[in-house]
Write a structure and sequence with these properties.
By secondary structure, this protein is an alpha+beta fold. It has a domain of 94 residues: Alpha-Beta Plaits (2-Layer Sandwich), CATH 3.30.70. 17% of the residues lie in helices and 37% in strands. It has ten helices and 46 strands. The strands form twelve sheets. Strands 20, 21, 22, 23 and 24 form a five-stranded antiparallel beta sheet that branches. Strands 33, 34, 35, 36 and 37 form a five-stranded antiparallel beta sheet that branches. A four-stranded antiparallel beta sheet has the order 4-5-3-8.
Length: 676
């Protein structure tokens, strides 16, 4: 019996049956139900262990110097992320044991510490070895008995250069059009194009070929996919949601993706550099929202990439993805820079600051030694133009004239292959809209004037900078596109209805520019030469208007080859070719003997221009191949039957021949006797 005293002094009594009945009403509730919100915030070993790194080879010192040592180490490792906690163990003599534990906020920051600080030299006697704590856990869990791993089955890789084996040597291009983002890769023939691969919903925005044409990148909400081989099978995937911009390195070994949204709330990094072949994350950065691209500019061989951060030029090297010499290059008032197309040289310019003039500097990498520099005054803006062979650098300087609203254009030409790198300047009085170099020669073109009425001038660099012929006046153009082989160019007015889509094809190889042909493409938005310089494409993409969307294909002389009208046309891009493996001597021999190949080329061109369509020829070829297969099968069956018949003949039968003579009456002629 259980007693309970009440306030009024009465003493009620309860039987044991009542107590047992009350106990049945009590629910068994553990902490996961009562304080689940608090328990969810409890750290878990499998989550936090990835955030912990162990730093070996730190200095061994007394506890009296522990605070100073800790501050030095935290200053180094705090650059990689937020340090939640740290610990330096001491031995029985109150000396450090030579290693340190650091706990970061998330696993990505721990990864940054490993990639940035592993191998960091504190001094000549201490070089850090940084590892993740989970790596030690993995080493401790290795069984003592070794088991031979089973070899994985061989998976053949696709041939990423298969398109170069085309016997017709047709170049390929990619187009995107339609509401369903219909994407197709075509081969460009002498009078029409042939689809190689086409799919709906292949991309959600646009596509991009790699610099050497090995990969085709398509953009999706989940990330970027890479395609290659004869059938454009998937060869890689980069998981990065809502990618806004992406680019290949010139060597195709690395791939850069950027998204305006971070990977996760715990991981604010939104720019990632991947290894293309393995699709591994090599380095990540946390950046604000970018309104320009590319953020990183790569050297021609993909060995270095750089960007401007404040008044610093940050140059990173591959494959370590670390800063060159582990430090940024301080360049006050740096505004822009550009890599040389064929050498590891950087040209950058600094704006004026009080009494300090503007300055253009050419620097070699990795030694970061200046090759040449030029001080400039009264500068409002500078543009840098490299020649493809790296022989020349043109610097366009916009100078503000005091007490005048106008500005003058001065060009500084650096001759980088000559002794002491001389600099030559010349001035153009009218406003310069653009400058473009001939990819293969010491020539360049300048568009000057105002929108709607422009002049075009061509120059050649010899002992002096001399004009090529007379200036072309009153041209309806705002763009010059040179052939990849040089000498030929197209003048076009892009994205301007007042230009009427005029296209002019010029030959600049002589003493004066020669107009080869003049054509038009209404509302043209882009001009693109194929890698061999045989064809040039003018396209009208869907961008605010839907009038005559599509593309026209021209030969280098300006004759139209074919045209295609596509509703909702979005993009056109040629597939690049890798650099030739032939030596200069071999190329000269090919050009010298070109006439011997001309006959074969003409025969192939005539066959391609015949009335028989490609589909009919393929159908006839298929029927012929089917018949020949059937015939070979029957010939084999006949050989088997002959063998069987010869085995059945056990006796040799001698044939008897009977000679008979048969006479036939052919013709009878009667001739009268002559009279003598």
């Amino acid at each position: 019996m259980v007693a309970l005293c009440l306030d009024d002094g009465e003493m009620p009594t309860f039987h044991e049956d009542d107590v047992r009945e009350a106990q049945k009403l009590v629910e068994d509730m553990d902490d996961s139900v009562l304080i689940s919100d608090i328990l969810d915030k409890r750290p878990r070993a499998n989550e936090t262990i990835e955030n912990v790194v162990i730093v070996d080879n730190i200095p061994v010192t007394d506890s009296s110097k522990l605070v100073k040592l800790t501050n030095v180490l935290l200053k180094i490792f705090s650059k990689c992320g937020k340090v939640d906690s740290h610990h330096i163990p001491l031995d029985e003599n109150n000396k450090t044991k030579g290693f340190m534990f650091i706990v970061y906020k998330n696993g990505q920051e721990a990864t940054n510490a490993i990639s940035s600080c592993n191998g960091y030299k504190l001094d000549k006697n201490h070089c850090f070895a940084v590892n993740r704590l989970s790596d030690f856990e993995h080493c401790m869990s290795i069984p003592e008995k070794w088991e031979e791993p089973k070899p994985e089955p061989y998976k053949p890789q696709v041939n990423l250069k298969s398109w170069l084996c085309d016997p017709e040597c047709f170049d390929q291009f990619a187009i995107v059009h339609g509401k369903n983002r219909n994407t197709a890769v075509h081969a460009c023939g002498p009078n029409q194009s042939f689809p190689v691969q086409q799919r709906e919903f292949w991309t959600e925005s646009h596509v991009k070929f790699s610099p050497k044409g090995s990969y085709l990148a398509t953009c999706h909400k989940q990330g970027i996919a890479l395609w290659g081989g004869p059938d454009f099978s998937k060869v890689g995937r980069f998981n990065h949601h809502n990618v806004t911009y992406f680019q290949f390195s010139p060597c195709e070994r690395y791939f850069v993706t950027y998204s305006k949204t971070s990977l996760s709330p715990e991981d604010p990094q939104n720019l990632i550099i991947w290894e293309t072949r393995s699709c591994l994350n090599k380095r990540a950065f946390s950046l604000p929202v970018l309104n320009y691209w590319p953020y990183f500019k790569w050297s021609h061989d993909g060995q270095y990439f750089a960007t401007i951060t404040g008044d610093n030029l940050s140059i990173y090297s591959t494959p370590s993805m670390k800063l060159l010499d582990n430090k940024k290059i301080s360049v006050q008032n740096i505004r822009d820079f550009s890599w040389c197309p064929c050498e590891n040289w950087i040209a950058y310019w600094q704006s004026e600051n009080k009494d300090i003039p503007a300055r253009v500097t050419i620097m070699s990498v990795p030694h970061c030694e200046p090759l040449s520099a030029k001080n400039l005054f009264n500068v409002s803006n500078i543009e840098i133009f490299w020649q493809n062979s790296g022989n020349y650098l043109a610097v366009k300087v916009d100078r503000t004239i005091k007490n005048k609203k106008e500005s003058e254009n001065v060009f500084e030409i650096f001759r980088l292959r000559e002794k002491d790198i001389p600099v030559e300047n010349f001035e153009i009085k009218s406003k310069v809209m653009s400058l473009s170099w001939d990819p293969k020669g010491p020539r360049f073109a300048v568009i000057q004037g105002e929108q709607g009425r422009t002049d075009v001038s061509f120059f050649k660099i010899g002992e002096k900078i001399l004009p090529i012929g007379k200036t072309l006046t009153n041209k309806k153009c705002n763009c010059i596109k040179w052939s990849p082989l040089g000498q030929y160019c197209v003048l076009a007015g892009l994205n301007n209805i007042s230009f009427d889509g005029v296209l002019e094809f010029w030959d600049i190889g002589g003493d004066a520019p020669t107009l080869m042909n003049e054509a038009s493409h209404f509302m043209v938005t882009n001009i693109a030469w194929d890698p061999t310089g045989r064809y040039v494409c003018s396209s009208n993409t869907y961008g605010g208007h839907s009038v005559e969307n599509g593309y026209n294909m021209w030969n280098f002389q300006g004759s139209k080859v074919f045209e295609a009208s596509l509703e909702g046309f979005i993009q056109f891009q040629w597939r690049p070719r890798p650099p030739t493996l032939l030596r200069e001597k071999d190329i000269k021999d090919v050009k010298k003997n070109m006439k011997s190949y001309t006959r074969d080329f003409e025969i192939k061109d005539k066959l391609s221009q015949s009335k028989a369509s490609k589909e009919l020829i393929e159908k006839r070829r298929a029927v012929y191949d089917e018949f020949m297969t059937y015939r070979r099968k029957k010939e084999k069956d006949l050989e088997v039957l002959k063998l069987q018949y010869s085995e059945l003949r056990t006796e040799v039968v001698e044939e008897e021949y009977v000679e008979e003579t048969v006479e036939f009456f052919m013709k009878e002629e009667v001739e009268p006797a002559s009279k003598e």
